[in-house]
Amino acid sequence: QLEPHFPQASKTSIGHVVQLLYRASCFKVAKRNDDSSLMQLKEEYRTYEALRREHDAQIVNMAQEAGIRIPPDQWSQLLYGDTAHKSHMQSIIDRLQTP
C-alpha cells in the first residue's frame, strides 16, 4: 500500500525505524489475549517533527555510545542530505551531553 508513494520503503527498512522508535519508548504497548501486542504511538510523538527529532536523537545517541563523534553539519548531511539541519542536530547533541 505504501509502495506507490514510497518505493524505497521496504519492510526491513520500516522495521528498523520501528525498532529504533521502540527503543526510544515512543510506543504504548498493550498485550493482547492471543500473545500478540498492539503498539500505538504515544501522543507526544504524533507530529512528524517530534517523531523525527526522537529518531535523530536515537541515532546520534547510538553513535555516541559506540564512541563515534560526528559534528552537527555532518549529521545533517547524513540524515537529511543537506547542512540546513545543522542547528537541529546541534541541539540534539547538546541535549544528549546534558546529564
Overview in brief:
Helices cover 53% and strands 10% of the residues.
Rg, Å, rounded: 16 Å
Placed side by side, the strands forming the largest sheet appear as 1-2
Question: Ranges with pLDDT <50 over ≥5 residues?
Answer: none
- Average pLDDT level: 92
Shape: globular
The tally of helices reads 4
For the sheet with most strands, the description reads: 2 strands, antiparallel
Structural class by SSE content: mainly alpha
Distance between the termini: 43 Å
Strand content: 5-15%
- Give the number of DSSP strands: 2
User: How would you name the oligomeric state of the polypeptide chains in this document?
Assistant: single chain
Helix content: 40-55%
Order of helices and strands: HEEHHH
What do you see in this structure?
The structure is a single chain. By secondary structure, the chain is mainly α. It has 4 helices and 2 strands, in the order αββααα. Strands 1-2 form a two-stranded antiparallel ribbon. Helix 1 (11-23) packs across helix 2, helix 2 packs across helix 4 (86-97) and helix 3 (72-80) crosses helix 4 (86-97). The longest helix has 18 residues, at 48-65. The N and C termini lie far apart (43 Å). The model has no long low-confidence stretch (mean pLDDT 92).
